[in-house]
Amino acid sequence: MNCFMFPGQPLTCGTDLPDDSDFRAIAAMTRDRAFFDIEGFSWVGNAATDNVKLQVFGTAMSLYRFRVLRRENSLPDFVAEHSMGIYPALAACGCLAEEEAIEMTFRIGACLARMGEIRRYALGCVVGLCREPLLAIAENHGVFMANYNTSRHFLLAGERSNMEAAMAEALDTGAFSARTFPCDAPLHTPLVGVIDGELREIFADYRYAEPRTRLMDHINQDCLEGVDLADFLREELQRPVYWEKTYRALRASGVTGFIEVGMGDSLKKYNRWIDGEMRS
Amino acid sequence: MPEELIDKVKQLIIDALRIEGMTPADIETDAPLFGEGLGLDSIDALQLVVAMEKEYGVVVPDAATGTKVFSSVRSMADYIAEHRK
User: Fold this and answer.
1) CA-CA distance, A169 to A152, in Å (whole number)?
2) Which sign does the torsion angle of CA B60, A241, A169, A140 carry?
3) Are B47 and A171 a contacting pair at CB < 8 A?
4) Mutation to test the B interface, candidates A125, A269, A280, most B Cβ within 10 Å
5) How many CB atoms lie within 10 A of CB A41?
6) What secondary structure does DSSP assign to B13-81, as a single string?
7) In A, which residues are within 8 Å of B45 by CB distance?
8) What's the predicted TM-score (pTM) here?
9) For residue A269, how far is the Cα from the chain centroid?
């Protein structure tokens, strides 16, 4: 069995964009529903932040890659997602139309960006430390674990000054690397709860069809059903991504082939690390 | 630096990072491994740290050392030659 994995927000935009009818169709949808010109990497309507640009870009490119795979008669037995990869994953499973996934990404990104107008937040990528000392560091500085990617790769999120202090302590504690990235909102943490009402309203605006392909959630590793989706979408922005657990659960379900459907290859690299630990 | 160690380091990179369709001859000895070169990142760096320790008993203790060690295949081979047990 194979699994299509949809990654979250890319760190940068790609330089070599495709030029075919599928890409042009996705680009037109993105202009129409998210007011974003992929080719120019610029807003054509209401401007939002650079992070929202990357979020919309990431969804659009995942949708395009999925079209290419489908054109090649490659279809998934399972779908998994990481963070904002949930939106194109929903389209791949037939729960939403492609244009709805693009619009949802934009609306959620813009909603999250409003948090950044009030406080300054950052993400922190820590490589090399294991979970327990990092949990203690997070608690020391009032920040939160946002992604459990492998036994040695984590993402934290919180207010920027706290995150900088946490990253400094992570390095002092022996992390191989610890870097902060400015962000609009502390994704996958309880801090997002302050906009819970707005998120609920956005997700209530859509009708979710039953997934045509098994879609594994990254919180509890359950297969999502249509009726779960609006609540899951709201909840997942306030809870960590458990990628390692998700990958192990997919393996235990009999998945042997993994295809990353989007920009970059972070998920493939996390899987490589987890595989190494599973073998040893 | 013996060419044999250079070739072994290239093979270690290919094996540890599971780079498909690449042979040691495809990797330039002095090209940067991160960014423009092979395009490696911090996830790859930790994978190489573990592989070097397993294969040669060589420890890369922190990111600052890693930045120097992983600047090219030659710098990796130099570090291994100097520190291996």
Assistant:
1) 16
2) negative
3) no
4) A269
5) 14
6) HHHHTT-TT--GGGS-TTS-SBTTSS-B-HHHHHHHHHHHHHHH-----SHHHHHHHTT-HHHHHHHHH
7) 127, 176-177
8) 0.93
9) 15
Name the amino acid, one letter, at A96.
L
| pLDDT tens digits, one per residue of A107-146 | 999 999 999 999 999 999 999 999 999 999 999 999 999 9
Angstrom distance (rounded) from CA A233 to CA A204: 10
- Give the largest CA-CA distance in chain A: 52
Tell me what pLDDT residue B1 has: 62
pLDDT in tens, A175-204: 999 999 999 999 999 999 999 999 999 999
Half-sphere exposure of A28 (CA within 13 A, CB side): 7
Decide: A225 and A95 in contact? Cβ < 8 Å.
Answer: no
Query: Is residue A68 within 8 Å of A22, Cβ to Cβ?
Result: yes
Q: Which residue has the tokens 């709201």?
A: A234
Mutate which: A272, A279, A280, vs B, most B CBs within 10 A: A272
Q: What is the architecture, at CATH level 2, of domain A121-183?
A: 2-Layer Sandwich (3.30)
CATH H-level, domain A2-116+189-279: superfamily: Malonyl-Coenzyme A Acyl Carrier Protein, domain 2 (3.40.366.10)
- Which residues make beta-bridge pairs with A32? none
**Is A14's Cβ below 8 Å from some Cβ in B?**
no
CA-nearest of A188, A253, A194 to A223 is A253
Give the B-side interface with A, CB within 8 Å: 17-18, 41-47, 49-50, 62-63, 66
Nearest to A124 by CA among A84, A90, A164, A73: A164
Is the ipTM reported for this complex over the cut 0.90? no
Hey, where are the domains in chain B? 3-83
3-state SS, residue A112: helix
From chain A residues 165-204, the ones with a CB under 8 A of any chain B CB are 171, 174-177, 179
Query: Which residues make Cβ contacts (< 8 Å) with residue A13, sequence separation at least 6?
Result: A41, A53, A54, A57
- Looking at domain B3-83, what is its CATH homologous superfamily? ACP-like (1.10.1200.10)
Angle between helices B3-16 and B42-56 (to 10 degrees): 120
